[in-house]
Amino acid sequence: MAVKVGLMLEAIRHQDKPFVWGVEKAAEIGYEYVEPMLHTGRELLSEAGYYHSVSQLEDPLWVREVIESHGLKLSGFSSHAPLCKPEISLEWLKMSIRFADYAGAPVINTDEGPKPTWTSKEMDYTLMTYTLTETARVAERHGVKIGLEPHQQYRKTLEGLDSIYELVDSPAIGINFDTGNSYLAGLSDPYGWLEHVKDRVVHVHAKDISIQHSEAERGKVTGTPVGCACGDGVIDWSRIIDILSEVDRDIVLSVECGTVDQAVRSFEHLTSLL
Description:
The protein has about 270 residues and is an alpha/beta fold.
């Protein structure tokens, strides 16, 4: 099996351009996969063409047509909904799974999200168990994986991510490993962490962290929205690829950076290693 390279469309967020423009740009650079972001309802900036996310009220077959017409494939959808808040996340994630099935995306990625200010850890874990149980049942029917990402308050360590992954026993639940978040949290070695979870990884957010960012925030935050260009920062991409090359299925490195220029440099660096 192989390690592939894709682009998370966060790379065009500051370009003030729509989803279709982002797909065209990913194809132009040479990426094989893209990972769009889903949102619920209607959102003004997306409707006006200034933002890259896709409404789940759109026709997923149209999304599929756009992707395929540019010679690309979906690695997954970014569908980050707060698992600790089932009144928000439950229907969001179930809709995302159905949307992913029709669009042809194998994975939706999420994390526990910001927790309610008034709940205890025990309550949060009960809420996450409820959300994941209901969501996993839908995911199993549709053949879509749920990628749990290291981020936020509980998944910032190897043990914390394991504790949430183990809440629900379902073949639909996997891990979306974020190289940058796992590094920035500073509490678990990111390479040892990836080695530990590699057999459960269904998707990877390829996020590099600049030296300046590392010096300013490592150990103080649980993650970051985007990183720098892959190869410009502290992450050892040869080591990441070596670990992922040992698994028995294709894994997509979905580049999570902040600009189109960074997306170009990331593509050049990662493809040179592959």
